[in-house]
């Protein structure tokens, strides 16, 4: 099972979201801990991955050798890719 770690930026972004959105994102990450490749999709032209949680996205790097999901960004889909 993978561990989930957050960058400082991702933690700040997550704290700014509403409580029900935050819970939905955390729930999606918990499901992805067992087999992240089944939940995350590779971003085109980037080494990062995305995870959908309704209208919100989680951008993360999956470190398979250390069994870590490093969350880089979290936010609404219209703003997250900028």
- State the CATH superfamily name: RelE-like
N-to-C series of helices and strands = EHHHEEEE
**Low-confidence sequence ranges:** none
Rg measurement, Å: 12 Å
Q: Based on CA inertia axes, which overall geometry fits?
A: globular
Write out key terms for the chains shown:
3 helices, globular, YaeB-like fold, five-stranded mixed beta sheet, alpha+beta, single chain, 34% strand
What does this molecule look like?
The protein has a single domain (3-75), classed as YaeB-like fold (2-Layer Sandwich). Helices cover 33% and strands 34% of the residues. It has three helices and five strands. The protein has helices at 8-16, 19-32, 36-39, and strands spanning 3-6, 41-42, 49-53, 56-63, 68-76. Strands 1-5-4-3-2 form a five-stranded mixed β-sheet.
Offer a concise description of the structure:
With 82 residues, this protein is of the alpha+beta class. The protein is built from three helices and five strands.
SSE blueprint and pairings:
Elements: E1 3-6, H1 8-16, H2 19-32, H3 36-39, E2 41-42, E3 49-53, E4 56-63, E5 68-76
Parallel strand pairs: 1-5
Antiparallel strand pairs: 2-3, 3-4, 4-5
């Amino acid at each position: 099972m993978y561990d989930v770690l957050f960058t400082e930026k991702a933690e700040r972004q997550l704290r700014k979201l509403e409580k029900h959105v935050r819970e939905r994102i955390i729930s999606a990450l918990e499901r992805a801990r067992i087999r992240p490749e089944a939940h995350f999709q590779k971003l085109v032209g980037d080494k990062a991955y995305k995870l959908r949680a309704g209208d919100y996205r989680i951008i993360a790097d999956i470190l398979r050798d250390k069994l870590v999901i490093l969350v880089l960004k979290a936010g609404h889909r219209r703003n997250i890719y900028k």
